[in-house]
Sequence to fold (142 residues):
Amino acid sequence: MTDKRKPFFHLAFPVTDLQETLIFYRDVLGCETGRSSDQWIDFDFWGHQVVAHLSPDEAGKSSVNEVDGHAVPAKHFGLILEWVQWEELAERLQNKGVNFIIDPYIRFEGQPGEQATMFFKDPSGNALEFKAFRNEDQIFAS
Fold:
């Protein structure tokens, strides 16, 4: 019998300070915490497991690429949310004073793959992107 459950992703990423990371992911993004040690913290990232590992020499390093007129960090992670969830998160981040790399906006407007997107960094300089599609059939549109 085949399990119909979608897989969860797991991502480990480097950070410079676990306390700052805890405050950002828990209090700003709203992620619950799981196991932790003095070297790492597990976060429930909208049902997925992301783990912040203390590794100051590796955190926050990335080049950028041009996408739709914006300098997008080549190394980033995030989620595709439902449209309303994306709007609510954008508002929460703005209210918390998060500095955006790329302010919330509609990318590829009127084209295949139109999407809402925003980029910001965590306290260690790791770039995150959250996006939403009005039509999920357009996620892989070309």
Summary: The CA atoms of residues 29 and 98 lie 10 Å apart. Helices lie at 18-28, 83-95. The domain at 10-138 is CATH 3.10.180.10 (2,3-Dihydroxybiphenyl 1,2-Dioxygenase; domain 1). The radius of gyration is 16 Å.
